[in-house]
Amino acid sequence: MSHSADSKAKLREICRVAARVFYEKGYDGASMQDIAHAVGLTKAGLYHHVGSKDNLLFEIMNYGMDILDETVLARVRDLQDPREKLRQTIIGHIDLIVRARDQEITVILHENRSLKGELRERINRRKRAYVAYLKNLIAQVQEQSGRPPLVSPTLAAFYLLGLVNWLYQWYRPDGPLSQPELERTTADFFLRGLLGSELTESLARPAALSRRGPADAA
User: Which terminus in the chain has less CB density within 10 A, N or C?
Assistant: First the structure.
């Protein structure tokens, strides 16, 4: 591993641990000493890697957006059918929000307003790019249906983000609702609202159901 790759791996490790500290104590409530202790560094060593508390929060959020790119967008990039691409984007985003392994995305939801100035704008640019991706994909799905849109792609994109991003507040992996069921239900719920009776009719046809894989079953 090169020095640069080693430094990036160390920064990601710090981000993962610090994200959990911020998640538990809040940005204002967590001290750099708390984070240094959790990471296993001296306070001076932590500052060497991240520069400042604000910059650490930025790095966590930036890493969170990297995870979105790597684990959600990269996996659907080659899908040609807009509806399936949107469905798999929804499923991937849900997995990112509710899984317990990483909490960087949850920190983005909790602490977005804690960043100021250029650091906040840099994160917001990446978030706006994701919203633009959703709007464009939703517009493609609507065009594919051949029906007049029931809602604007912009409004639908923000509805979807609100629906998925709020899951971390109430969903419990050890509860009665399994993650695959949550993913299927949420994707179908959103697509029914987006496409109306056109999707409802297709889901009701046994032949259509038999052609879909397990990830598409209602």
Answer: N
What's the CA gap between 215 and 83, in Å, rounded?
13
54-216 carries CATH number 1.10.357.10: yes
pTM: 0.82
Write the pLDDT tens digit of every residue in 79-89: 999 999 999 99
Contacts of 51 (CB under 8 A, 6+ apart): none
User: What does the alpha-carbon distance between residue 92 and residue 95 come to, in Å, rounded to a whole number?
Assistant: 5
Give the span between the Cα atoms of 8 and 35, in whole angstroms.
18
The DSSP 8-state label assigned to residue 78 in this structure reads T
Q: Where are the domains of the chain?
A: 54-216
E strands, the chain, are none
201, 150 contact by CB (below 8 A): no
What's the rounded Cα separation, in Å, for the pair 60 and 173? 24
CB atoms under 10 Å from CB of 200, counted, come to 12
